[in-house]
Structures are given as structure tokens and as C-alpha cells.
């Protein structure tokens, strides 16, 4: 910290504010989590946002342009939790390492992990309690971090120490173990994918036929996990009133957490692995009844 009266430099005690030579990464902007990844990466690298779906409120996944040949990596957010989009296919980035945030879709369906150089996912959606993060990294990328990277952020150190470089969140990991055993006994990702597709199809099909609500998301990139829906009402006041009443009456009926993310409003059904088909059917029955009151 600069002493009082000292000019605040762009660096701290001689360390450059951005260590090392700036490499370029390419990132596709598909919403808030992509933006956060871009903002963090910009502290260390030049960030090339090659495509964005911001023009339509992130309701679609843009075509993925090819990376630059020297890009350090190419980043996508596989499932966009808040807006309810999912990549329809894994983009081909050639020899440039593909990195993804898989937080809200990990183990929701089979995914060709070998196509990714690095996958990271917070545990709290499909795996277990908050506080644990899963990282799957291609072995040849270990140990490539520059020397100035703090030890806690170096995957080679975590790897060498068997993920116990620091005291790990033991309880969270224990619960994740139970969840993984549950999933394995059920039939694994293949099996849960069938249930997840059935759950999502029930809601999307209902929304197609509903006179009261619709899905704002492009059909070819709809999430299996997060399904936003909005009233067909055009009048803003009336729309807001419907949303408020819907969320309150649903909660009173035992259907909770249906408000859309505070950044986008509307409603959203998050139907992670732990949500049974019965829960989805109860939601649809509630929506059908609600429609009649409009
Ligand atoms: C939930 C989520 C995160 C992490 O959320 P935190 O609350 O910051 O732990 C990151 N990315 C995506 C896509 C998510 O859905």
C-alpha cells in the first residue's frame, strides 16, 4: 500500500500490475458468467470477445468463430444458468485449448470431456454443497503456469498434493461422494440425461402450447437445467403484476425459487439432477391452473 502522501503507482511494491507478457485468449460472451470469466481473464491477458449474444438479451448461442492460432485458450460457458441457454455442440478450436465453465450442467448428461483442455464447476448445482469446485484439466497443461501465479491457483500444486495442498472442504467432498454414488447406482450420466430430457421437454412442450407464458430462448440451444419463462402479456405493469402473483402463489403451493434471476426478471425453473419428474409435473399442473385465473 502506498504511504500517505506517496503517489499510488499502477503496481504494488515494484510488482507490475499485470505480470508477464500479455497473451491473448478468445471468449464467447453468452451472459453474466461469461462476462465474469472475461473480466477475470482481463487481469492477466488480452481478452478477445469473438462473438456475443448480448444483442438479443443472451437468448441464443452465437456461432463460435475460429480462435487465433496463438490464443492461450478459448473459453465458453457451457450452460448459461441465468438466461437458460446451452451450447448445442462443442466448438472445434483445433489446437487451441478449450476451457469451459460447467457449473450448472456437470453430470446432467454425457459430455465428451476429452474435447476440453480444462473444465471447472462449482459443486452447488448438481454435485453437492457449496464450497467445493471441481476442476478437470488435461495433464499436459499442468505446470505451465508462470511463476508469479499464487500457489492456491496452481493446478500442478493441487495435483501433486492429491487435492490436499490446503485443508480441503472435507464435508462437502464427503457429500459429493454420496451424490456420485447415488448417480452411479441410478445408471450414471446416460440415465440421468434421459430423466433430465424428459423433465425439460415437459416444460418446453407446455410453454409452446401455453397462452400465458413462453420461453424466450432459441429452440436449438435450450438448457436442460434452467428454464426461464415469461408472461405473453405485453403491458409492462400487467406483466410485472402477473410475475409477482405467480411467484407468490407458487410458493404458497410449495413450489419455491421460481423467480427469475434478479438481473433478468421473469420466472425460471431450475431443474437440476435432484429435481424429480413429479416436481416438474406439479409445476405444470400449477401453471395450467394459474393460466385459468388470467
Ligand atoms: C452457479 C454458477 C457459478 C458459480 O456461482 P457462485 O455463486 O459464484 O459460486 C459459476 N458459473 C455458472 C455458470 C454458474 O451457474
Explain briefly what this protein structure is.
With 294 residues, this protein is of the alpha/beta class. It has helices at residues 32-41, 155-160, 170-186, 188-209, 236-252, 277-292; strands at residues 23-29, 45-52, 74-77, 79-80, 85-86, 98-101, 118-122, 133-137, 213-214, 226-231, 267-270.
Task: Describe the overall structure.
This protein has 294 residues and is of the alpha/beta class. The chain is built from six helices and eleven strands. It has helices at residues 32-41, 155-160, 170-186, 188-209, 236-252, 277-292; strands spanning 23-29, 45-52, 74-77, 79-80, 85-86, 98-101, 118-122, 133-137, 213-214, 226-231, 267-270. A six-stranded mixed beta sheet has the order 2-1-3-6-7-8, with helices on one face. A three-stranded antiparallel beta sheet has the order 9-10-11. A two-stranded antiparallel ribbon has the order 4-5. α1 (32-41) links the parallel β1 (23-29) and β2. The protein is globular. The mean pLDDT is 93. The protein binds pyridoxal-5'-phosphate (PLP). The site of pyridoxal-5'-phosphate (PLP) has 8 residues, from loops.
Amino acid at each position: 500500500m502506498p504511504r500517505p502522501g506517496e503517489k499510488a503507482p499502477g503496481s504494488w511494491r515494484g510488482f507490475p500490475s499485470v505480470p508477464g507478457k500479455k497473451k491473448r485468449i478468445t471468449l464467447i460472451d453468452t451472459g453474466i458468467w461469461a462476462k465474469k470469466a472475461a473480466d477475470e481473464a482481463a487481469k492477466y491477458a488480452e481478452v478477445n470477445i469473438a462473438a456475443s449474444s448480448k444483442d438479443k438479451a443472451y437468448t441464443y448461442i452465437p456461432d463460435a468463430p475460429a480462435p487465433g492460432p496463438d490464443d492461450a485458450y478459448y473459453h465458453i460457458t457451457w450452460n448459461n444458468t441465468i438466461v437458460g441457454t446451452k451450447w448445442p455442440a462443442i466448438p472445434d478450436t483445433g489446437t487451441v485449448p478449450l476451457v469451459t465453465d460447467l457449473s450448472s450442467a456437470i453430470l446432467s448428461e454425457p459430455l465428451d470431456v476429452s474435447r476440453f483442455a480444462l473444465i471447472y464447476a462449482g459443486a452447488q448445482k448438481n454435485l453437492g454443497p457449496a464450497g467445493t469446485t471441481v476442476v478437470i484439466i488435461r495433464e499436459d497443461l499442468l505446470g505451465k503456469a508462470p511463476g508469479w501465479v499464487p500457489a492456491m491457483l496452481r493446478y500442478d500444486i493441487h495435483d501433486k498434493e492429491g487435492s490436499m495442498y490446503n485443508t480441503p472442504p472435507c464435508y462437502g467432498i464427503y457429500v459429493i461422494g454420496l451424490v456420485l454414488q447415488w448417480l452411479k447406482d441410478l445408471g450414471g450420466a446416460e440415465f440421468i440425461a434421459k430423466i433430465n430430457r424428459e423433465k425439460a421437454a415437459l416444460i418446453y412442450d407446455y410453454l409452446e402450447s401455453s397462452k400465458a407464458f413462453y420461453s424466450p430462448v432459441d429452440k436449438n440451444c435450450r438448457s436442460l437445467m434452467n428454464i426461464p419463462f415469461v408472461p405473453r402479456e405485453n403491458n409492462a405493469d400487467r406483466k410485472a403484476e402477473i410475475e409477482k402473483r405467480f411467484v407468490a402463489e407458487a410458493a404458497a403451493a410449495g413450489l419455491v425459487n421460481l423467480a427469475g434471476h434478479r438481473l433478468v426478471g421473469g420466472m425460471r425453473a431450475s431443474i437440476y439432477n435432484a429435481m424429480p419428474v413429479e416436481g416438474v409435473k406439479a409445476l405444470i399442473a400449477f401453471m395450467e391452473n394459474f393460466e385459468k385465473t388470467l
